[in-house]
Write a structure and sequence with these properties.
The protein contains 15 helices and no strands. It is an all-alpha fold. The radius of gyration is 19 Å and the shape is globular.
Length: about 350
């Protein structure tokens, strides 16, 4: 399993708790789209290229994922069920229940993006990498995170339609699912089918493949934010709302980390499984979120819809990196976040 997927980048090439190189590239893309948004024929060309980039991104996801590793750990159904429940049920409920707390911090448009963030599947690579660092159940993490990623292609549009019915593109949920299946799942399946042929080549050329991943995501972000900037995105979002968004994302992540830790202990999972539950259940996928947003939302609203996700992505990497290192050093200490253990959410 390749653990270096750029969308879930976990290796901090700068000092701890500073943004990684991919995050800096995302910020640079936002600045470029704000200063030089593509328009007219250039915008149409970028849009077509973005469609190809999305297909290529999920083709590579499919070619990287080992079905044998997923099948080997699939019998641990209680753990996987809990992770899926947190990812697709509890997270959206958090977003809705915390509305009185979150909405005053951000604009209504950004709150829509927060709700969209709550409907997304978990990451794959960073969930597995952090689980391995913290000495958790790595095979279960492979299965759980992969299942979340695949199932999310079908579940996220349904949940998004339920919680964001007045903000998504018009039309029934099955049309949205059909569009996502065509753009994401079909290339993913093609990658799985061709994995025996190209899998080893991809492993040997991991760096080049990662560059393709990175370029695809940056192109999608540039396309989405170009149109949003033309529609007045930055005039609609004051600096105070961006600061509030940082707090709102932090609240959601803390709620997910604490809940997964406590519930995992309450249900009697051992330490290794609890590590897996915490890391797989608390994350959201940047790559799938950005690509799904292109289908679910009207084109001029995509930029604002994915802004909470982009910030959440960096927060989850920094916080989970600290937790994974702490739990790795403490060996057998419990990852449950009780009143005493909750201090492990913060670096000392």
């Amino acid at each position: 399993m390749n653990r270096s997927n750029v969308s879930d980048h976990t290796i901090m090439s700068l000092p701890k708790l500073l943004p990684d190189n991919f995050t800096l590239a995302l910020i640079g893309t936002l600045v470029l789209a704000s200063l030089l948004p593509c328009r007219g024929q250039a915008a149409a060309a970028v849009e077509n290229l973005t469609t190809v980039a999305i297909a290529l991104l999920f083709f590579l996801h499919g070619a990287k994922l080992s079905p044998q590793a997923v099948i080997a750990a699939a019998s641990h159904w209680r753990l996987h069920a809990l992770v899926l429940l947190v990812t697709f049920v509890l997270f959206p409920l958090f977003g809705l229940a915390f509305k009185p707390l979150l909405l005053p911090l951000v604009t209504p448009t950004l709150y829509v993006g927060i709700l969209f963030l709550c409907t997304l599947p978990s990451t794959v690579q960073s969930s597995i990498a952090f689980t391995a660092i913290a000495k958790g159940n790595v095979p279960a993490a492979v299965c759980s995170a992969s299942a979340s990623s695949i199932i999310g292609i079908f579940i996220t549009p349904v949940v998004a339609n339920l919680v964001l019915s007045s903000h998504v593109r018009s039309g029934p949920a099955w049309r949205t699912i059909g569009a996502i299946v065509l753009q994401l799942f079909v290339p993913f399946v093609c990658g799985q089918i061709l994995r025996p042929v190209i899998g080893r080549w991809i492993e040997r050329n991991e760096g080049n493949v990662s560059m393709v991943d990175q370029g695809s995501i940056l192109l999608i972000v540039y396309s989405a934010f170009s149109e949003a900037v033309d529609e007045g995105l930055w005039r609609q979002i004051p600096p105070s709302a961006l600061a509030g968004l940082l707090v709102a994302d932090g609240i959601l992540l803390a709620a997910a980390l604490i809940t997964t830790g406590l519930v995992g202990k309450w249900l009697g999972f051992d330490r290794a499984d609890r590590v897996t539950i915490v890391f797989c259940g608390s994350k959201k996928s940047l790559s799938q979120g950005i690509t799904m947003a292109k289908v679910i939302f009207a084109s001029h609203t995509v930029g604002a819809a994915v802004l909470p996700l982009m910030l959440f992505h960096q927060i989850q990497l920094m916080v989970c990196a600290v937790l994974a290192q702490r739990w790795s050093r403490h060996g057998e200490s419990s990852p449950s976040l009780t009143s005493a253990g909750a201090k492990s959410l913060l670096p000392h």
